[in-house]
Amino acid sequence: MFQGSMVAMVTPMHDNGALDEAALERLVEFHIAAGTDAIVAVGTTGESATLDHAEHQHVMRRVVEIAANRITVMGGCGANSTWEAEQLTRCALDAGCEAALLVTPYYNKPMQEGLYQHFSHLAKAVPMPQILYNVPGRTGCDLLPETVDRLADIPNIVGIKEASGSLERAEEVIERCGDRLDVYCGEDARNLALMNAGAKGCVSVTANVAPALMHQMCMAALEGDQSEAEAVDARLAALHNALFLESNPIPVKWALSEMGLIGAKLRLPLTPLAEQHHETVRQALKLADAL
């Protein structure tokens, strides 16, 4: 249903921590101009963990309004409470998002049956396209391929963002379910490898700062132009590493600030990028022609 470069967009903030409305509009326009295929508003990279519900809903609604049907908008709606995830998903639907991205419930570590019931409940409760998100390194919860296989039979579960850290795992999900849902890479360093295995695109942190190149790489991969895809991915490789020198979104917010697009403000408990990493991120931006 969706494909290409889907940016996990940051949420810009003023120095006092308030949402920066002007910078939010600037980012949306930046991605539209660069050819980004979709924006994920208020996912992990958008600091969903520290936005309250009113802010969360407001950012989704504003991104949809600014986009004005010029780009696909998805809402980050996952939570470790099924009830809370349902409320956020309803907010995404009401705001006009075209899909909801739903991370596995974090911290409380449900069993596979609990994960199946969580996601199947959300799919039945909110009639919109839904994309699963598996990132056990952040959540302490791993959505196994056999559970994805069961969920793939639910019509409005249309995809999964796979960020388990295992290419073999992602390939297994594609083999089991690729005819029923789309797989998207959730780890920038593996984007091309996973697209070569059959993924339809990526949900990318790197796309925040190099959106045109990320779109170019995805389109080349989808069209089977391997030499072009490899050449573009090589220009992005340093960024893929540099933007994860500290916890996401710390480096990418610093990078966007260096580019003059937003301020570098994060909400606690996240703290500014350590000075020792500034030059590494700066040089990676230059290699990708982002500076």
Automatic annotation (TrEMBL):
HAMAP family linked to this entry: DapA
A GO term from the CC aspect: cytosol
Protein name listed in UniProt: 4-hydroxy-tetrahydrodipicolinate synthase
Pfam families the UniProt entry points to: DHDPS
InterPro entries per UniProt: Aldolase_TIM, DapA, DapA-like, Schiff_base-form_aldolases_AS, Schiff_base-form_aldolases_CS
TM region(s), chain numbering: none
Residue numbers marked as site, L-lysine inhibitor binding: A49, N80, E84, Y106
PANTHER family from the UniProt entry: 4-HYDROXY-2-OXOGLUTARATE ALDOLASE, MITOCHONDRIAL, DIHYDRODIPICOLINATE SYNTHASE
Catalytic residues identified in the record: Y133, K161
Highest taxon of source: Bacteria
EC number: 4.3.3.7
Role description: Catalyzes the condensation of (S)-aspartate-beta-semialdehyde [(S)-ASA] and pyruvate to 4-hydroxy-tetrahydrodipicolinate (HTPA).
Catalysed transformations (reactions): L-aspartate 4-semialdehyde + pyruvate = (2S,4S)-4-hydroxy-2,3,4,5-tetrahydrodipicolinate + H2O + H(+)
Residues noted as binding pyruvate in the record, renumbered to the chain: T45, V203
The protein's annotated pathway: Amino-acid biosynthesis; L-lysine biosynthesis via DAP pathway; (S)-tetrahydrodipicolinate from L-aspartate: step 3/4
Marked site positions, Part of a proton relay during catalysis: T44, Y107
Subunit structure: Homotetramer; dimer of dimers.
